[in-house]
From TrEMBL, chain A:
Keywords for the protein's UniProt record, in alphabetical order: Transcription, Transcription regulation
Signal peptide (residue range): none
Organism of provenance: Ensete ventricosum (Abyssinian banana)
Protein name in the entry: IBH1-like N-terminal domain-containing protein
Ranges annotated as spanning the membrane: none
Annotated IBH1-like N-terminal domain residues: 26-79
From TrEMBL, chain B:
PANTHER family (alphabetical): TRANSCRIPTION FACTOR ILI6, TRANSCRIPTION FACTOR PRE
Keywords of the record: Growth regulation, Transcription, Transcription regulation
Gene Ontology biological process terms from the UniProt entry: regulation of DNA-templated transcription; regulation of growth
InterPro entries, A to Z: bHLH_dom, HLH_DNA-bd_sf, PRE
The protein's name: BHLH domain-containing protein
Superkingdom of the organism of origin: Eukaryota
Length: 149, 82
């Protein structure tokens, strides 16, 4: 079992997203519902639903604060999300830093909503997305360990 | 950012903050970071996290077939609060 301080800096909570209890509550609720409604489904079908629930509960917890969570919720077509006018930053002309921008094209495809942002916004969103994603992974690992012990 | 021109300093600052959420961040210096390296490491890390979500989803799917999550919930919450 991996040690709790697997973020590497000795402080286990430093890289965790602040809304971890909310993420846990959302995710457990989804798992419970999936178990009740998908008892006769295949492992693969249930697995896809769990995966979807993981990203959905992650995005719900972040809510409208972030462009990545908004993009994820739209992609998952979560109907409970109210349309919100996101404050838009003025569009800044991209600087002439060719190598970084080329490399960022790969990153843009990995981060939800990444293709619509300027470079600086992308870097900020990515950091938040990673914190949240890492928290979700740790949450799923904890749930898995608890159930299987 | 109200200035119309993004400075190298601003970009370096954002890259440093991004590097701080990557694994083994404590092993790296916080001086000038290589943008290419940070972006590369970031992409790799995101991909590995996506794979972990896939693997754990599959594992949970198998476990849910044989274990009632509601009865395990107390134990789960205890672990999460630890």
């Amino acid at each position: 079992m991996e040690p709790k301080s697997c973020s590497g800096d000795g402080n286990p909570s430093r890289n965790l997203h602040p809304s971890k209890p909310l993420m846990a509550a959302n995710f457990l609720r989804c798992l419970s519902r999936i178990q009740q409604t998908a008892t006769n489904s295949s492992v693969g079908s249930r697995s896809r639903r769990i995966r979807r629930a993981a990203y959905a509960s992650m995005a719900y917890s972040a809510g409208h604060r972030r462009a990545w969570s908004w993009a994820l919720l739209r992609k998952l077509r979560c109907r409970r999300v109210r349309p919100v006018i996101l404050p838009r930053r003025p569009r800044i002309a991209r600087p002439q830093v060719v190598i970084e921008i080329d490399r960022a094209e790969v990153l843009r495809k990995l981060v939800p909503g990444g293709t619509g942002m300027d470079y600086c916004r992308l870097l900020e969103e990515t950091a938040d997305y990673i914190r949240c994603l890492a928290t979700q992974v740790r949450l799923m690992q904890t749930v898995t360990d608890s159930i299987s012990s | 950012m109200s200035s119309s021109r993004i400075t190298d300093e601003q970009i370096n600052d954002l890259l440093t903050k991004l590097q701080a959420v990557l694994p083994e961040a404590h092993l790296r210096s916080t001086d000038r970071v290589s943008a290419a390296k940070v972006l590369q490491d970031t992409c790799n890390y995101i991909r590995s996290l996506h794979r972990e979500v896939d693997d754990l989803s599959e594992r949970l799917s198998e476990l849910l077939a044989n274990n009632d999550i509601n009865s395990a919930q107390a134990a789960i919450i205890r672990s999460l609060l630890r």
